Amino acid sequence: MQTNSFLLYGANGYTGTLIARYANEYQLNPILAGRNKAAIEPLAKQLNLPFLIIDLDDSNALIEALSTVKLVIHAAGPFQYTAQQMIAACLKTGTHYIDINGDIAVFEMIQTYNEAAKKAGILLMPGAGFDVVPTDCIAMALKNKMPAAVSLELAFATLGGSISHGTATTMAGKIGEGGAARVGGKIIRTSLGHTGKWIDFGIKKIFVMSIPWGDISTAWFSTRIPNITTYTGIRPTIYILLKLQPLFNWLLRTNWMRSYIKKKINQAPAGPTDEQRAKAIGLVWGQATDAQGQTVHLRISAPEGYTLTTHSALLIAKKILAGNLKTGYQTPATAYGEGLIDEIPGVKRIDNL
């Protein structure tokens, strides 16, 4: 078993391919894996990497593959359909698990494996990418600065760039479901964009609306701040139109509409080009407030989401393979502290806490 080797499942996806391409920069040697040989084999040959063809529903083959590695980076979403099979196999083989999930329900589901993971001596860390590494680290930094915080707001926006097929497909699977927030320590359902406002990201003021981002789950786990709202940048005109969405949620939830949207997604490019990623900027903002209304905030600029995900997943993988880890369910910040974000190439703090 090579100490710098890991299984990369979903290597043929947009983000999986980026992780495979950049792994050598971290002196890591992934074994590319997935169920689509026609996509996996050419990539493996191009990068001169080993590969395996495995279906997640073939538990015996999955266990056999995982028994040869210390770690799997799971990059095959939507994770609501793929995470449980991989985690079940990891628990049997003693293989550490990280993924690039962003779905609140999946974070909550994986938390239920905490004790089983500790017993098996493994780490389970969903959200090792843009969702939720930067926001999780900001959440912990704000909590450390203001231990008595009672509310937390987190926002992100991207200047330039676009989304991949995988991200769009996951979003399409949730369309019509509305939003979420954490209130009094409990996750509650809300309308999508129930709150909108302008935020100064340091580089630019951007209008944002509330969305069900992964930190509704993970920031609570990391900080225990009881009230959490998450936002993303959006054009004010689109925000106004989205206010009408509740009238059409019944239609958006139909299989026909979701299939139509997914068909349109598949007709688009797989994701942003290298040039688009290089020019795009990710902006992240967080603010904590205590019971007296006092606030602290933190802003960072970073590479766009897919570039950051590639580097954060590989950085975390290298730490795990070196034995730097905590067992059980962890978020990026509970495992590696608020300073993890500062280790990612291209990240700059606009404010100093």
Explain what you see.
There is one protein chain. The protein has helices at 14-22, 37-47, 59-66, 79-93, 104-111, 114-120, 133-145, 165-174, 215-223, 236-242, 249-252, 255-267, 274-279, 305-321, 332-336, and strands at residues 5-9, 29-34, 51-53, 71-74, 96-99, 123-125, 149-159, 179-183, 186-190, 196-200, 205-210, 227-233, 281-290, 295-303, 328-329, 348-349. The protein is of the alpha/beta class and 353 residues long. The chain has two domains: 5-129 and 307-337, Rossmann fold; 133-305, 2-Layer Sandwich (Dihydrodipicolinate Reductase, domain 2). A hairpin with a 2-residue loop joins strand 8 (179-183) and strand 9 (186-190). Helix 1 packs across helix 14 (305-321). The N and C termini lie far apart (42 Å).
Q: Structural class per helix/strand content?
A: alpha/beta
What's the CATH architecture of the largest domain?
2-Layer Sandwich
Approximately how much beta-strand content do the residues carry?
15-25%
Lateral strand order in the biggest sheet: 3-2-1-4-5-6-15
How many domains is the backbone divided into?
2
Instruction: Count up the helices.
Output: 15
Helix content: 40-55%
Rg over CA atoms, rounded to whole Å, is 20 Å
Largest sheet: number of strands, sense, barrel closure: 7 strands, parallel
CATH class of the largest domain: Alpha Beta
The total of beta strands comes to 16
Globally, the shape reads globular
Distance between the termini: 42 Å
